[in-house]
Amino acid sequence: MIQQTREKFIALFGKEPLIVVSPGRINLIGEHTDYNDGFVLPAAIDKKIVYAVALNGTRQCNAHAVFTNETVSFDLNHVVPTPGWINYLMGVVYQLQQGHYPVEGFDCVIAGDIPVGAGLSSSAAVEGGLVAALDEIFRYGMSRMDMALLGQRAEHSFPGVKCGIMDQFANLHGKKDQVVRLDCRSLEYEYFPFDFPEYRIVLCNSMVHHSLASSEYNVRRHQCEEGVKAIQAQHPEVSSLRNATMPMLEAVKAQLPAKVYDRCKYVIEEIQRVQDATELLKKGDLQAFGQLMYATHEGLSVLYEVSCPELDFLVSLAKERPEVAGARVMGGGFGGCTINLVKQDKVDAFRGFVTDRYQQQFGKVPEIYVTTIENGTTVQKVAAGAPDARA
């Protein structure tokens, strides 16, 4: 894919590009905790976005998407939200401009094999790849955390998704064969080896496509904030659900709508599950880790209500299989993938079982991806003749 993207760029724009590989991500546990200042446990994976980028000496940006065979252009003097995939690129450019980073006209080709709407964070891969490319070309000297925060702001301001920091963080900080526990309040993080050679990470795509820009994602965030406000009346020091405890929540239960209570209960319990999960990784106890994944799915389905019949069915299939250590819905929900920890020598049997049963139940074939944990966004080739923005 990298070579094809480079060749496409040369055919379209007639010059040698910078190449950047920007991965999707999984999250083993810790869902919807990031925007509540909690903990998450993501990793970068082998599904990726590939960028080929070079300057063009104008104030125009031209982007060609291989996946839609479409070229879109925008003027750097008029960067405003625009429908479609180009909105993610424009959001990054806008936030760079807001941060007084110089941006000149560039051409780019984007390719990728991250399934859109599958919960693998294709949007963060698009954002992270572009900011890393422009940082390399213009020599901004941004840290990886600076890039992640800028990508998050881009998603907030242009697509309008009030996402937490996890997706952009994992995209830019991933390390091969390691998961990373991120404290979304302090932004401190720690790597943990995911060293279970007998198991593979298998993603089952429900083929139910979701958009995190849908109103439901932001509704969940507002419900969590409503719970925090009620707790603050008795505990002013509580600034987010990260600070809250179940006794605090129980004390205000009568004041809260039932759904708000349920949302907050899930988040408080999930923040603790991430802490417990990393201790289990240190001990090498994947079976107990998997049970926490099942508990997360139950919470996401019943309390947080971001699952759907298709995802619940996929997890129920996983529970029938002794080769599966754990499974749950992954990502924002309302569709997308389940993540499953499957014994390596049983992956083919698991794939066949899930495919047959799911097709019988829903009349569609799930896509199944066997993934590996890889490095985060990497710059593979430096374009010649770029200006130095630090000069």
TrEMBL record:
Stored InterPro entries: Galactokinase (IPR000705), Galactokinase_CS (IPR019741), GalKase_N (IPR019539), GHMP_kinase_C_dom (IPR013750), GHMP_kinase_C_sf (IPR036554), GHMP_kinase_N_dom (IPR006204), GHMP_knse_ATP-bd_CS (IPR006203), Mevalonate/galactokinase (IPR006206)
Cellular compartments per GO CC: cytosol
Native species: Chitinophaga oryzae
Domain of life the protein comes from: Bacteria
Gene Ontology molecular-function annotations: ATP binding; galactokinase activity; metal ion binding
Enzyme Commission identifier(s): 2.7.1.6
Gene: galK
Domain GHMP kinase N-terminal stretches: 87-174
Top EC category: transferase
Name by which UniProt lists this protein: Galactokinase
Entry keywords, A to Z: ATP-binding, Carbohydrate metabolism, Cytoplasm, Galactose metabolism, Kinase, Magnesium, Metal-binding, Nucleotide-binding, Transferase
Domain annotation Galactokinase N-terminal: ranges: 7-54
Similarity field: Belongs to the GHMP kinase family. GalK subfamily.
Pfam families per record: GalKase_gal_bdg, GHMP_kinases_C, GHMP_kinases_N
GHMP kinase C-terminal domain mapped to chain residues: 279-358
Example of a GO biological process term: galactose metabolic process
Keyword Cytoplasm applies: yes
Gene3D superfamilies, sorted: 3.30.230.10, GHMP kinase, C-terminal domain
